[in-house]
Amino acid sequence: MDQVSLVIILFAALLIPLVMAKFKISSLPTAVMEIIVGIILGPSVFNFVNTTDAISQLSTIGVIVLLFLSGLEIDFSLFKKRRTALTPLEQKNAVNLPKYSPVRLSVYAYATVVVLSLLLAAAFKVSGLFSDFWLATILFGTISLGIVIAALKEKELLSKAFGQTILLIGVFGELVPMMGLTLYASVFGSDSKSLWLLLLILAVAAVLLLRFKPFFRFYQNINKSTTQLDIRLAFFLIVTMVTVAESVGAENILGAFVAGIVLKLLQPSESTRERLDSIGYGFFIPIFFITTGVDLNLRTLLTSGKTLLLIPLFFLAYMVAKLGAYWVLKLRFKTANALAGTALSATTMTMVLAVLRVAKSMHTITTAQSGAFLLAALVTCLVSPLIFNKLYSAEKEDLVKTAVHFIGANLSTVPVAQQLKKGWYDVQMYTNHPQNYKTYHSQAPVTLMEDFSAADLADAGVFDTDILVLGHIDAERNYELAKAAHDYGVKRIIVRFEDRNVLNEHEDELKDLGVEVYNTPEANITLLRALIESPSTLLMLRDTENSIYEVRVVNHLYTNVQIKNLAFAKDITISQVIRNRKLIVPNGNTTIMYGDRLIFTGSKQDAPRIRQALATAN
């Protein structure tokens, strides 16, 4: 019977994502669906599966791996002090934005969650509905970081201020309850030991971090498929920290969570993360979620009138505890998005399962109360993502086009400006020749200036741009303006040099400053050679509908995906993949990896949108 139940659970774990993909169920987290299927397979409905000792052990490993991966999800770079010296363009664009960083907003928001959780726990205690004040506070303050990340990834928001804010609130929603659970178990647990022994967990974590950090790069270099040293290190950390945690009377999930944080600070590669996710979410974690559903006997739970009352009350408590975040989020984001972020922050599941598991082992909660808490958490996972997806829309600060300013309006620059203007670029041109102004101002956005001195250009806002193209015929003037623009803080500068002597004199200096230079005669030579060696090059260059693009893939939605399976595979042609400074000639079966640089061709209507999607950090 042990093997049959396990086979059924594993078969269900295999079918669930296939069915969700088939029926396009994207608004429901996979974990929630796995718990629901567990309820159906268990004694609540069909009673096909029973929880045996072997399955319980696999489930325990599942929750340990889940908390380990949760610790690995925390992005500590968000807590680092940000650069305070903004470029002039960043200062200009930030004038109308409230001065609230994601870190500051998230701290304020989660502080309201803590306060409201305390008040709600007190209300339940006074009313007699649930007497354990501290356990209720911990439960109401939990947030499912995994579901938050999944929802933000789906909308490609992790690199934006809104996404970073909600992500940090989710981080606090796991970190703080985990700390609270540890203290709760230490104080009220029958097997608990002295609180100071908990410091041993942190001490061991620090030792492991310091011990393995110098060698981690070495591990990465000699890592191969037959050794998988990074994965061996990960499981060594898990077992070590779980053993230490249990030895000092803490919970094993705390050790697993700290182990995830240690590995995160060791800065593993994306491939390491992906393999750990494969092991966890491919085997152990689905068993844990499905088994959780199996253990929920709704026939017993729903016969109790008090349990039926507690389920909606706990659901409201989960939601109300996060309401204070709305007014904090409104300090920077629009009303609809503040509501969307608040709703998403009310999603809770992972930590609720962990907390309830500990509370049941301590016998501080009844089976009926535990079931009510869990079912209420399930409802938040059904409702909250739907509200978020319905309400969220892009913020104004996320819709700013890339600003490109051209100094010099001539036959070399105007056609380029005209084509860029059709894409996601805000183009402006400047000339000091009245005749050129008369010739081109009807064809492109050209401004006439009397002089091109650095001071005048700065005063006129010409240097307030993301990209500055110095396309003037005067090479010496371009050189002086390039240095002035660099000192001003322009992020990217492209300079035209028709005089090779001037370029020879200043090329090394400009390249050291990060300035990009080009010379028309050399470009023509390169083009002619390309035409001789590849005659089709001319056809590509003459094509007004298509163009060549390059992009670095940093969006996880498109990594570990074969080219033939990309959603936009028919809209572009990928000619080269640059990986670790090596050229790869791709085919349909080539898998796109994180950090790959793609050289592709596509229509000037579709390609910029695809390029932006691939380059959006997620």
What structural class is derived from the secondary structure elements?
A: alpha/beta
Largest sheet: 6 strands, parallel
In one word, what is the shape? elongated
Helix count equals 26
Low-confidence stretches: 82-87
Rg, alpha carbons? 29 Å
Q: What fold name goes in the CATH topology slot of the largest domain?
A: Na+/H+ antiporter like fold
Strand content: 5-15%
**Count of structural domains:** 3
In the sheet with the most strands, the strands line up as 3-2-1-4-5-6
Structure summary, number of beta strands:
12
Tell me what the CATH architecture of the largest domain is. Answer: Up-down Bundle
End-to-end Cα distance, whole Å, is: 44 Å
- CATH top level class name of the largest domain: Mainly Alpha
Helix content estimate: 55-70%
Subcellular location: Membrane
Family: Belongs to the monovalent cation:proton antiporter 2 (CPA2) transporter (TC 2.A.37) family.
Domain RCK C-terminal: 536-616
Main location: membrane
